[in-house]
Write a structure and sequence with these properties.
The complex is a heterodimer of chains A (about 350) and B (about 160).
Chain A (H helix, E strand, L loop, with lengths): L2 H23 L5 H4 L8 E14 L5 E14 L4 E16 L3 E3 L4 E14 L2 E9 L30 E13 L2 E10 L13 E11 L3 E12 L6 E13 L2 E12 L4 E13 L12 E11 L6 E13 L2 E10 L9 E9 L1
Antiparallel strand pairs in A: 1-2, 1-17, 2-3, 3-4, 3-5, 5-6, 6-7, 7-8, 8-9, 9-10, 10-11, 11-12, 12-13, 13-14, 14-15, 15-16, 16-17
Chain B lengths: L1 H11 L14 E6 L9 H8 L13 E4 L5 H11 L7 H9 L6 E2 L3 H10 L3 E6 L7 E7 L5 E2 L10
Parallel strand pairs in B: 2-3, 2-4
Antiparallel strand pairs in B: 1-4, 1-5, 5-6
Classes of the chains: A mainly beta (about 350), B alpha/beta (about 160).
């Protein structure tokens, strides 16, 4: 890298580092403490943010504040609840070509909905919500996931968000709960991100069961807004479990087109291992070794096989510092091969 | 495939699980004296403290209350009822918070739990059975072995 460019990158990293430091200094409470944060009218405000650097194997280095997301919710003793998440995407970016800029910045209504609780077995939701498909999509906020990059299977096979209505609930079953979600699109999606694939006629269901070993089953049907408007049905399976503090997480999706032919598939298996458990390295307390394997296959893209190795430091329950290398085949804008480092905070 | 073997190898390197060392005591699950519910089961308690059950049978909203994560009684209750220690539940509560749902309220002492339950409509909490008094009523007891009982078991309180 040219020395001047390197100096620019260092200066941008210093800026992003300062932002990260400020975010660390703000009252980043444990979720337990957040519980008491609502005002007397039932409103509460929170959110999350992340900043990071990408050094892709093929391409230019990039540093950015990835997002600043504000979560506003309201609830009182009634059976209605309001929730919204407004996100400022890529508010500040630096790359060698454009230097420090805000060109990629835009405001995104990530979620906006009203819930009505009939009983714990029956709830209704209307508005814009994360499509209930798999685990990552429902918990994709940077402070809630171990890696800076997102598995391809969770972002390019089905719609990430849906504008519509939903019924959901939990039914006690043995010592756990069977949870269900049934949803259907009612309004067309907003046009917000050109990297995103657009979808319509979305409907589906998600079922989960188990506490220590939690399984999920996803059924979806939708039409892609591409040249030929192909329609797909999708079956998904996911799980999350822990063994001696080691987390195992996996998701798999298979799509079929209207002729019952293969319409694409993807899967990943990820583990997060507390490094302090290996040889009792107490100095690595709250550090986690992360490993992930991915496969991804879309009809119009060549099959990709990816691997990821990383280390994540849980600085506080609400703050993560992530370092990772991604390799394998294929590149996507949101998941390039190479080195990524980021800091994420939930506040 | 090589990576899969590497993952399996890492998995095999693990040492034994940590054990929880704390004194066990009988726990009383408490509600306000005017609360109509007179008994509660283990599955219900689980759902309430995982925040998957929000309403009492009479339609009143539930307000579960917890002690701080490091409190020995919280650890015992959490281990017995939820099957895990609070320190391992960070991801769950952060995830729930992301979806707009708060974890149970946290207060600093058993006295604060009693006051919160006595004064908050629909509240439910837990204290050492020996600290039970007339400001609240018990609707279940968590025995030393983890059984959830609807009648008080035999227990001794320090004079």
């Amino acid at each position: 890298m040219h020395p001047i460019k390197r100096r620019s990158l260092v200066s941008v990293m210093a800026t992003i580092g300062s932002v990260a430091l400020l975010l660390m200094l703000c009252k980043a409470a444990h979720a337990d403490e957040v519980a008491n944060a609502s005002d007397e009218n039932g409103f509460s405000l929170g959110g999350y943010s992340s900043a990071g650097i990408t050094l892709p194997r093929d391409g230019d280095a990039k540093a950015a504040i990835n997002e600043i997301s504000l979560i506003l919710r309201w609830e009182n003793d009634s059976r209605f609840k309001f929730f919204s998440e407004i996100e400022l995407e890529d508010p500040l970016t630096w790359d060698e070509q454009n230097k420090l800029n805000t060109k990629e910045s835009f405001v995104n209504i990530e979620r906006l909905y009203l819930d009505y609780n009939y009983s714990e077995k029956t709830n209704f939701r209307a508005g814009r919500f994360l499509t209930p498909a798999g685990r990552w999509n429902l918990l994709h906020a940077a402070p809630l996931v171990w890696t800076s990059t997102r598995p391809l299977a969770t972002s390019r096979l089905f719609p990430i968000t849906t504008n519509g209505v939903m019924a959901f609930g939990a039914v006690p079953l043995k010592d756990s709960a069977f949870e269900y979600t049934i949803f259907v699109e009612a309004l067309k999606d907003q046009i917000d991100d050109d990297d995103e694939i657009k979808f319509k006629h979305v409907k589906g269901a998600r079922f989960t069961f188990g506490q220590d070993l939690n399984f999920g089953l996803n059924l979806l049907s939708f039409t892609e807004k591409t040249a030929s408007n192909p329609s797909y049905r999708m079956l998904g399976f996911d799980f999350l479990t822990h063994y001696q503090d080691i987390e195992f997480l996996g998701e798999g999706f298979q799509r079929w087109d209207s002729d019952n032919k293969d319409g694409g598939s993807g899967a990943y298996l990820q583990t997060a291992i507390p490094l302090s458990r290996l040889n009792n390295w107490s100095s690595l307390r709250n550090w986690y070794g992360i490993a992930r394997l991915e496969i991804f296959d879309r009809p119009d893209e060549r099959r990709q096989e990816r691997w990821l190795l990383g280390a994540t430091w849980r600085i506080k329950p609400t703050q993560l510092l992530k370092l990772e290398f991604t390799g394998g085949s294929g590149d996507q804008p949101e998941s390039p091969r190479g080195f990524l480092g980021s800091f994420a905070v939930l506040f | 495939m090589r990576l899969l073997f590497a993952l399996l190898a890492l998995f095999c390197l693990l040492s034994s699980a940590a054990s929880m060392a704390s004194e066990q005591t009988v726990i009383a699950v408490i509600v306000a004296n005017d609360q109509a519910t007179k008994a509660i089961s283990l599955p219900e308690l689980k759902l309430i403290y995982w925040r998957k059950k929000d309403y009492w049978a009479n339609g009143k909203r539930m307000h579960p209350v917890n002690l701080p994560a490091e409190n020995p009684l919280r650890m015992q209750f959490s281990k017995k009822i939820l099957g895990s220690l609070p320190s391992t539940q960070i991801d769950y509560w952060n995830g729930l918070y992301f979806h707009g749902k708060s974890p149970p309220h946290v207060v600093n002492s058993e006295e604060a739990v009693i006051r919160f339950v006595a004064e908050t409509n629909g509240a439910v909490g837990y204290i050492e059975a020996c600290n039970l008094d007339t400001r609240v009523q018990a609707i279940a007891w968590v025995a030393e072995n983890g059984d959830v009982l609807n009648k008080a078991p035999d227990y001794r309180c320090a004079p």
